[in-house]
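Researcher: Quick one. four chains, 670 residues in total.
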Amino acid sequence: MSIKTVSRVVNREEGVSPVLTARVDASIAYLGYQPDDRARRLRTTDLRTGVIGFVLVDVSNPFFSSILRGIEEVAREHNYFVLSGSTDGDSARQDQLVSAFVTRRVDGLIVVPTGDSIGPLSGEIDRGTPLVFVDLEPDEANNVDLVRTDHQGGARQATEHLLRRGHTDIAFFGSPLDIFSARLRLAGFREAMEAAGLTVRGERMTTGLHTPDQWQRLVTDYLVQTPRPTGLFTAQNFITLGALQALHALGLRDRIAQIGFDDVDLGAVVTPGVSVVPQYPLELGRRAAQLLFHRLEGAPHEPVREILATKVIERGSGEIAPSLTTPARPRSRPR
Amino acid sequence: MSIKTVSRVVNREEGVSPVLTARVDASIAYLGYQPDDRARRLRTTDLRTGVIGFVLVDVSNPFFSSILRGIEEVAREHNYFVLSGSTDGDSARQDQLVSAFVTRRVDGLIVVPTGDSIGPLSGEIDRGTPLVFVDLEPDEANNVDLVRTDHQGGARQATEHLLRRGHTDIAFFGSPLDIFSARLRLAGFREAMEAAGLTVRGERMTTGLHTPDQWQRLVTDYLVQTPRPTGLFTAQNFITLGALQALHALGLRDRIAQIGFDDVDLGAVVTPGVSVVPQYPLELGRRAAQLLFHRLEGAPHEPVREILATKVIERGSGEIAPSLTTPARPRSRPR
DNA sequence: CGAGAAAAAGACAACGTTGTCAAGAGGCAC
DNA sequence: GTGCCTCTTGACAACGTTGTCTTTTTCTCG
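Model:
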């Protein structure tokens, strides 16, 4: 029998006699034949590969793996699969991943951009490969779909949250400023402080340390000074953890207010709970994938920029009132 | 000029005149041509697809995403990429993923098996698709490479750790017993208890709840009974968190010993720290990928079973001595 | 039983590459 | 100028599928 007949049976096309169909099916079962999807999609040019690429910083970071999960959910609805790769913040690696994915003919790309330059991506944009940026925003590319948290607004909210409790001496601890979101968060902090008529002193802003341990040491240094800040804004996950350990070790968790950007596990278990402005990575991923499929399936349209709103989660640490002196354990916690 | 000439230039083959090479390169740059890797690999049959599939339970769970990260690292060394998909413990979904990956001609599969049956996977095993199981072990397939933590040994160690501090009334809280690792952990607990000559009473073993909240309520019930257990073995992540909250709410964190299976973030920040038998998911992933590539590239060999050893991390909670009565806050913490 | 139509099966090209082999261009020695 | 060799270039088939068209078989009905 001919190859074409087999093709017909496999695709359950009309017009094959039951006898032959049965024989083909039997042989397929016997031989364990699996059609080669690559050849299929090569032949039928209007069929896409059914794969999208996701270039992220590090899958083992729960923030990013939740984004991946969100993407995967939407991809699944469209019968798509996700090819992912971690850059570790290395833009050469990002370029490699993008090239490899494109050469494998992914139908679209979702990228957490690393560094401010976008390398071979700009070529892809020109060629019309559907592309969505998540979480961060490279300087160059404002003609591309984008989904991210409102880093600046969130930082402003967090700062205002402390200001509203009467804090005037607030310390800001943030990520290195070569990271886009770190710059925005710092900007949000400044904005809130200045709107409150407070001068932002340079020695109350530190950025650039990397591990929770480093942050713990630094925050400890801050807290043994006089005068010390009455509130801390720890503008990233690891920083929040480091500061938490510092406060804990000094026995100051009840006395110094702390609010973090990004949620922390167990943030509700410690006492007082850790107040934060969380991000919603699952939602970031879902929205990004939705934008991508919209572009894949729909008509061309103007680039979309989605900036997800934030709000403060109050758990205790952010609601501590300022205590300039060293009072006798004021268990008072407003609200 | 002919297509073949372009092919030669793209692959930098010998024997194309500099003039033509330059012209081809210029056109490629001008047109933004990207070779189609699928067609390439279709033609050269000895070339693999350069993609491996990873079927896991849920990428947004840090345990699994760390495994993915480990796999990715090894894959990268081999110039491979990883296609991943979450099953959410649904074995129908697992079958779909496996089929889709196979039909896309992944060169190998790494699977965290869901449920005890392996469905279409057994067909793949017969067809010789390289396959490695991680973390869990389906009943049927003992002729397949496997990497997992020594769940039973780890549970035994955890239990012995409490026994060594003099605990005799230990409560076990575990995952539903349809999960392979949950059965092994329970078995490890029993083994240690029986070796110590203690009878394992049914009412001291609970399995099957799902969320930290449920566990919190259940553990609270245990702790307000008389007599109450003096030590808790919380045999999974979420359970540890739930119990932690229960102990915390009752003010018993200093008085009741607790040891967990799986590490918890912030486990070192709370007081006392949470003693655990951690798993090393990154290492699980790395080893699984190494086994897969060994099979992909090397000669056929007998199935390999790697059971990774565990050890207790002491952080305080697991070293609390038994306190049968309600003593006057003994701040004593052995070790 | 034969003509015509409908149904079933197959032949062939094509998707975008690369391996194989043949053809053409140019150089050198006689 | 001829023969031979080398260096470039191109023609063609093939990978595993499917779309299109053609051929063969079967069925229907007068």
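The two ends of chain A are 80 Å apart (CA to CA).
Researcher: Thanks, that's what I needed.
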